[in-house]
Design goal:
Elements: E1 2-4, E2 12-14, H1 44-55, E3 64-68, H2 74-81, E4 86-89, H3 94-106, E5 120-124, H4 130-145, E6 149-154, E7 165-174, H5 177-180, E8 184-192
Length: about 190
């Protein structure tokens, strides 16, 4: 169902019902060959990063942007609305990329599947497992060495490598209790050093 996002009400997304948990959509099962539908939810890190981009459009305006692990596409949509020259929504799950494009259309913006030589990389709520975190950090560090600006939204996930980042903002983000066992999460916006 299309509904406004709590921290960024100017963006509406097709999302699971608020009382639904991540594994409710998989029949309560985890299948290693198919990722859970992370894209059916708007996570705290993505909400906070989207809010930051909308409040600070100069971060992306006129620049080529890649949203890594796009999920629902909220961060990519915010970048497009903030005036980015081009925005790629990327994810290992092709269903997430499809969801991001569907949500972009609902918000009257266009996303791409790739943007060569991005000037800004955005990543919301991506440090949730050791495997994903290790792979992603290597990629982000490579891009940062090329002078690409890297911004991350993270609500204190266990595998966030804080030592590599400096905090530039913080938000209290409303979240579904079915996902987080809390009603809000304090979420930082972090710039890679």
């Amino acid at each position: 169902m299309l509904r406004p996002v709590p921290l960024t009400p100017e963006i509406s997304l097709h999302l699971a019902d608020p009382g639904t948990g991540l594994f409710d959509l998989t029949g309560g099962e985890f299948r290693s060959d198919e990722p859970p539908p992370f894209w059916s939810f708007v996570w705290a890190g993505g909400q906070a990063l989207a809010r930051y981009v909308l409040d600070h459009p100069e971060v992306v305006a006129g620049r080529r942007v890649r949203d890594v692990a796009t999920g629902s596409g909220i961060v990519a949509i915010a970048a497009a609305r903030a005036g980015a020259a081009a925005v790629a929504a990327t994810d290992i799950d092709p269903r997430a990329v499809a969801a991001a494009h569907r949500n972009a259309a609902a918000n009257h913006v266009t996303l791409r599947d790739d943007v060569p030589d991005p000037e800004v990389i955005l990543a919301g709520d991506v440090f949730y497992s050791p495997t994903v975190a290790a792979a992603l950090i290597g990629d982000l560090r490579t891009e940062r060495r090329k002078s690409v600006e890297v911004l991350v939204g993270d609500p204190g996930r266990g595998y966030f490598p804080e030592r590599l980042f400096e905090r530039v903002a913080e938000y209290t983000v409303p979240v579904p209790a079915a996902l987080e066992e809390a009603e809000t999460l304090t979420t930082g916006i972090w710039r890679m050093r």
